[in-house]
Amino acid sequence: MFRVATVFTVAFLLSQVPSYTSGVFEREVTTLLQDKLKDHHPYTIPTIPALNASTYFISLLFSANNTILTGFDKAYITKFVPPLPLISDAVKIEGMIENMHFYTEDYSLHGMYRGYHMSASGRADLTMEKFTIKVFFRAAKYTLLPMSFCIKTNSLVLKLDVDSITCNLQGAPLVSAIISANEGTFMHLAEERVNENTRAMEAAINSVTCRT
Q1: Which of 22, 147, 156, 210 has the CB geometry, 3.0–4.6 Å to 198, for a possible disulfide?
Q2: In terms of DSSP H, where are the helices of 22-172?
Q3: Structure pTM?
Q4: How many whole angstroms separate alpha carbon 14 and alpha carbon 7?
Q5: 148-151 and 116-143 beta bridge pairing
Q6: CA distance 41 to 24
Q7: pLDDT grade, residue 147 (50/70/90)?
Q8: Could you give the 3-state DSSP secondary structure of residue 18?
Q9: Cα(137)–Cα(103) distance, rounded to whole angstroms?
Q10: CB-CB contact of 154 with 199 (8 Å)
């Protein structure tokens, strides 16, 4: 969709400019971020392969093709805490998307619900209201000129949250209702999956931003 490293670079660079005051910096980063995102909006995810969602009462495998993602072009930064030389290497970024929408004409799910087999396919429509992401990592090295920062291995952590989810899966009204009524559980599962891949994300970001 777009390079995550680009967002990190823009945010980090502006964080080093001392003239920014509280709130001004977030607005500047938001403007730059939205300018980058608009060129990729809407975005089509070619394949979502066998995404597993399991709780104590349900276990499903969800797959989809050509999923259209919209709404992310309005993402904005709500908080940025940069590293402080000689004091702290911690970096915190918080952002929000007011309304994010996923749609596909080709999804499928298979699994079990309270011991009963479930299977469905067709259209899938999901809307997230006030989707928030919190990013934390530690900067191993950082310089302004030339611009460079390196994320410490195993320090990247992401937290996801959402106010509400409206889900409509063709042929699966029960699963749709469960997801819509349990947004916290759904986001917890998504957060777990994302954080399982943070080592790869660290490597991808460092390949662009880290000059050793």
Answers
A1: 156
A2: 24-37
A3: 0.79
A4: 11
A5: antiparallel
A6: 26
A7: low
A8: coil
A9: 32
A10: yes
Beta strand ranges found along the chain (DSSP E):
43-54, 58-70, 76-81, 90-113, 116-143, 148-151, 157-161, 164-169
pLDDT value of residue 19? 41
Q: Are 52 and 44 in contact (CB under 8 A)?
A: no
Integer Cα distance of 206 and 194 in angstroms: 18
How far apart CA 19 and CA 74 sit, in angstroms, is: 26
Give the integer Cα–Cα distance in Å for 119 and 137.
Answer: 40
Task: Supply the pLDDT for residue 53.
Answer: 82
- Alpha-carbon gap, residue 158 to 193, rounded angstroms: 10
Confidence grade of residue 160 (pLDDT, cut at 50, 70, 90):
very high
For residue 71, the number of C-alpha atoms closer than 13 Å in the C-beta half-sphere is 17
- CA dihedral (17, 23, 26, 28) positive or negative: negative
Tell me what the mean pLDDT of segment 75-102 comes to: 89
101: exposed, middle or buried (C-beta count within 10 Å: 0-12, 13-18, 19+)?
A: middle
Domains of the chain plus CATH, in order, are 4-209 (3.15.10)
Instruction: Map tokens 């495998």 to a residue.
Output: 61
